[in-house]
Amino acid sequence: xxxxxxxxxxxxxxxxxxxxxxxxxxxxxxxxxxxxxxxxxxxxxxxxxxxxxxxxxxxxxxxxxxxxxxxxxxxxxxxxxxxxxxxxxxxxxxxxxxxxxxxxxxxxxxxxxxxxxxxxxxxxxxxxxxxxxxxxxxxxxxxxxxxxxxxxxxxxxxxxxxxxxxxxxxxxxxxxxxxxxxxxxxxxxxxxxxxxxxxxxxxxxxxxxxxxxxxxxx
Length: 218
What we know:
single chain, 5 strands, 54% helix
């Protein structure tokens, strides 16, 4: 039986008549390692010659360096910019939800107008004041709920604009837009009635009883 130790090139006493180079050539891993060493030894020289003679001829006035810089930036910025469209598609529904939330927050519906004159009542005036003073500047838009009658809708829009004009020239202003969003909610009168009822049924506050030493609680 013949066997060889490829890592060191040492073989058994049974094949002492073969030179060491034959052992290395007979072992495939050693041949591969020798080829890699030879390639690594030649590569720096080849790269230097290519950059010295072939680089300017191929690249021109610094184009090679520019291409190398672009490739470096692309590799280090991965996966951008290829996922920008995916990010925008994910954020788009959130932007729509935020816009719809502010539209509902700034919506003036039936509870904020007088049902006969279509003028703002006290709740409507306070709502407009909040929009002009407390809402973010980019969200200062007054939405008026559209009614079944276009004349009533126009009267409500005119009432909101007239009230903002009455606040004075130095007061902040906002655009008035007709909205078709459903006016879900409860009137301020009902909310006030529920809160008052809640207060009337609250139990009187009292401190807990203090147990005396030896009291068993019976």
